[in-house]
Design brief:
single chain, about 120 residues, alpha/beta, Transcription Regulator spoIIAA, 4 helices, 5 strands, about 40% helix, globular, STAS domain-containing protein
């Protein structure tokens, strides 16, 4: 089992989180709270999460919980793009978060996601 690692980078246009390793459910929930705190601290309203190097997939229930919490923490004030693992085609997190008012997008094409993230809202 490899440790769950988060590399944070504050870029001029957005905050970036590069994730790798194995995770627990709590790791994901803690990450969302950290992202909300970083948004407040920096005043930035765009987040890019690179989850392409996470070594295990998340359960359906965890994806649902993450979607609900994303809507609660960020609503329509933050844009969040998440780069998924190459073998992950599930969009449940995106659907649940969007249904709760969040502005999110997930996918496997980094350039398309960054283009969407940097669109003028």
């Amino acid at each position: 089992m490899t440790p769950f690692t988060i590399i944070f980078d504050e870029l001029p246009e957005y905050l970036q989180y590069a994730l790798s390793g194995d995770h627990s459910d709590q790791d994901w929930l803690d990450l969302l709270h950290r992202m909300a705190a970083d948004i407040k601290r920096t005043g930035k309203s765009k987040i890019f999460v690179d989850a392409s190097q996470v070594t295990m997939s998340t359960s359906v229930m965890l994806r649902y919980r993450i979607g609900v919490l994303t809507g609660e923490l960020f609503g329509a004030t933050t844009r969040i793009a998440t780069l998924s693992r190459a073998d992950d085609a599930d969009q449940l997190w995106e659907t649940v978060a969007t249904n709760r008012g969040a502005i999110v997008r997930s996918g496997r094409d980094r350039e398309k996601l960054l283009g969407w993230l940097n669109e003028v809202a």
